[in-house]
Specification:
about 0% strand, mainly alpha, globular, disordered C terminus, Four Helix Bundle (Hemerythrin (Met), subunit A)
Length: about 250
């Protein structure tokens, strides 16, 4: 009997970098929870602690889950494209939903305390990032998950989708860094310069946010780690082009 073909493997180093990204991501969540629990009183809805849901939701949704959604095509290299695509969209959608909860939390908290909205650089950058992220998700679903566009139009939009995906991930981390700084200046402005434990913990969170972004960005930009198209996917792409453009794939 002929030996079975060996299972496909990931490129050298990919699994290690993905594991590091997940370790950093979980550490981010742990430090965010520790900061809010130890120094800000914890998280509770419809209470003076409602605001604290905002940083927790943003780190979870707009950083950790968004980063994992971007890594889907590197991690699930040999699974069916439709399943990978659905998981990619699902993680992005979940990130949007959690971020929306965080946005509602901050607006309701401001209203209850009489604090004005949307005046700071953090709020401008954060809201712009969320709106563009929502638009990116809708366009991605329209072009790729429930495609109605022609083969050539999808081919044109794909590089734009990839570029804005990475750009929005960078903007999300940047907005979080601005938010951490703003929160520290509001809460501990008198003692921040004295290297108090809360300031050190929050600064550590910021450094880890940057580290997470760098690791995810490195994985995404390694050309040899991109997901290779399966043979059946190439055939389906050619059939789709023939059906939508009325020409042979070689024509």
């Amino acid at each position: 009997a002929m030996d079975a073909a060996p299972p496909p493997t990931s490129p050298a180093g990919l699994s290690a970098y993905v594991a590091v990204s997940q370790l950093l991501g979980l550490t981010l969540l742990g430090i965010t929870g520790a900061w809010l629990g130890r120094y800000r009183g914890g998280v509770a809805w419809h209470s003076p602690l409602q605001f604290n849901a905002h940083p927790l939701c943003m780190v979870l949704g707009m950083v950790f889950l968004q980063g994992d959604a971007l890594l889907v095509y590197r991690v699930f290299r040999h699974e069916a494209k439709c399943s990978t695509k659905a998981l990619h969209a699902l993680l992005h959608g979940l990130a949007l939903l959690i971020a929306l909860v965080g946005i509602v939390a901050v607006f309701e908290s401001h209203r209850a305390k009489g604090i004005p909205d949307m005046y700071s650089l953090h709020s401008w950058c954060g809201m712009a990032t969320f709106v563009l992220y929502l638009l990116q998700w809708c366009l991605g679903c329209g072009f790729f998950l429930f495609p109605r566009a022609s083969f050539s139009l999808r081919g044109w939009y794909k590089p734009q989708h990839i570029f804005f995906g990475i750009t929005l991930f960078i903007l999300s981390i940047t907005s979080c860094l601005l938010g951490i700084t703003e929160m520290l200046l509001f809460k501990i402005s008198d003692s921040y310069s004295h290297f108090v434990p809360e300031g050190i913990l929050a600064n550590t969170l910021g450094v880890l946010l940057v580290a997470f972004g760098l690791v995810v960005g490195y994985v995404l930009t390694r050309e040899e780690w991109k997901r290779p198209p399966l043979a059946e996917e190439l055939a389906l792409s050619m059939d789709f082009k023939t059906l939508t453009e009325g020409e042979s794939p070689g024509g």
